[in-house]
Fold this protein.
Amino acid sequence: MQNKIFNKNSCRFESSVNLKGINNPLSVIIQITRRCDLSCVFCSETERMPDATIEDLIKIKNNLKGVSRVYLSGGEPLLRNDLQDILKIFYKDFIIGLPTNALKVDKKSALFIEKYVDFVTVGLDGPRSVTNRVRGDYDGIIKGINILKSKEIPLALCAVVLSSSKKSVPYACQIADVLGAKKIKLILPILKGNALKLPKSEYLNIEEAEKLFRQIKELKKKFDWKVKITMTTWKREVEGYSILVYPNGDTYAWPVYDKKDKVLFLGNLTKESIKSIWQKYPFKLNHLNKYLGRSINIT
């Protein structure tokens, strides 16, 4: 099954990125909680652990010198009653991205999101029946999105593509275009957590995914969608691209295909600097190319 999803033998990727003089990652994902009010069929982060403490988040922030962008992620970040305080820790020093399912977005939270967050990414996998089946509560998600839109908060959507949902991907792109999203990110599930329960038939291989993206590219041109569309497939060129910080500060490269939990331990960001962790990080080129958009499909 792994060979079907994680194709390490895809065509060789050449890059002009020069690693010399780059001492820090471009971006870091920090899980401030693992709690969530949904149970997506593809969720990889199902292992429960205590929320990150304010004290540890301050240590992490102080150890991120040189990083320009952080994602304050989950679980569902808006389940943290102290989210506004957490955002205040980071907002002056970083570009802040907030991934959310938007169910807890209300007028009050939208006010501090508008003030402290640079962009929000909301999971939406397609029309109502598809999103309800694989993620849950389409109507609640749309309600939250509309509140964010009322504050003109920059918005991106994220859709996880399964074999059973691939026919709905054009509808997801149309929804993103209608909502005025800056981008919709299409990704494939990772063999971890709830996704381990998915039938093998739900996983697109690299060739199937890239054929789908070519179709989406043609539809974007045909229907004049303005939204930027990207697709990440789990090939060799994006392995380990993300630096992921668990709520306890443990820091990993993700996804690492041959590891049981798809992560490679690098250190603990409450105890050492990101520069130190970067020196031990074996996927520097993949990280830079992914965040510069050089190893993913874009239209």
In short: Residues 2-7+26-298 form a domain with the TIM Barrel fold (CATH 3.20.20.70). The radius of gyration is 18 Å. The first strand starts at residue 27 and ends at 31. The CA atoms of residues 155 and 181 lie 5 Å apart.
